[in-house]
Amino acid sequence: MKVLRKQELKKALEALRHYFPKSQEVYGCVSIINRAEVDHRDVLVDRWPDFSVLLVKPNWQKPDFFNQVSIFTKDESCLRNILTRTDVLDWKQFISLSVELQHEEMLKAVALSNGVPMNKMINGYHLMSLEDPSILPADKLSIQVSSVKESHVALINSTWKFGKGEFTEPMIRSMILNYPSCCVLDSEGQPVSWILTYSNCAMGMGYTLPEHRRKGYSKALVTILAKKLHSEGYPVYCFVEEENQLSYRLLKSLGFTEDLSYRNAWFNFNQLSLTP
């Protein structure tokens, strides 16, 4: 596969816009990579400029549960050929793939042919997006809002559903230091509600401490972060677990939409030792 150079990423973004929502996640990845001075990911295509498969993957060797490979494809057979007939992925290592759910059976066949175990993290996600955040209402709450600080890593890691102690702290620290975020602070300057941005540009990891819920903080922070991302030229979207109806209803109330024909999922191959 061809690794795209910096000057080719803009053209890739223009092409990907024609394939939303299927290309939304890789579009978010490429948006960030295109602007970053340093980003440890490669953008690969099967051919250029008329690609059928675009793949974003970390360019370091150490397997990492949360630095997954993100894939967009127009042609499942083309993707299958790449996964089975090239060395773009090392099937002896732990691999985490983010891809459209409809490719699950094909991935099972690929895993079987490579003799590796595969498991699906969660059944599926709603992909919620907002084209124009200017429609969002102005925040009327009397709250103190700040960006999330590096000193908040331990708190956020301890409350995150997928937090794995020291193993996931580096990922959260990277998100805080490199991507937009915001939080509500209490009178002592400590965060009580927050939302971050993942390396694929999706908003996420939102959480409010139990004693501070039902005050409108989540709605306010989604509004603030969505406007910030949009003002900086990034797409505004997020993934919501199908079981998380509370977040789903909140986003729908703010004007986020979804394409019901599309579902995304994360698939893991091999096992990863949770050693920092």
From TrEMBL:
GO terms for molecular function: glycine N-acyltransferase activity. Signal peptide: none annotated. Its EC number is 2.3.1.-. It is an enzyme of class 2 (transferase). InterPro entries: Acyl_CoA_acyltransferase, Glycine_N-acyltransferase, Glycine_N-acyltransferase_C, Glycine_N-acyltransferase_N, GNAT_dom. The keyword Transferase applies. Residues 143-275 form the N-acetyltransferase domain. Pfam families: Gly_acyl_tr_C, Gly_acyl_tr_N. The keyword DNA repair does not apply. Keywords: Acyltransferase, Transferase. GO terms for cellular component: mitochondrion. Belongs to the glycine N-acyltransferase family. This is Glycine N-acyltransferase-like protein. It comes from Ictalurus punctatus (Channel catfish). The gene is LOC108261418.
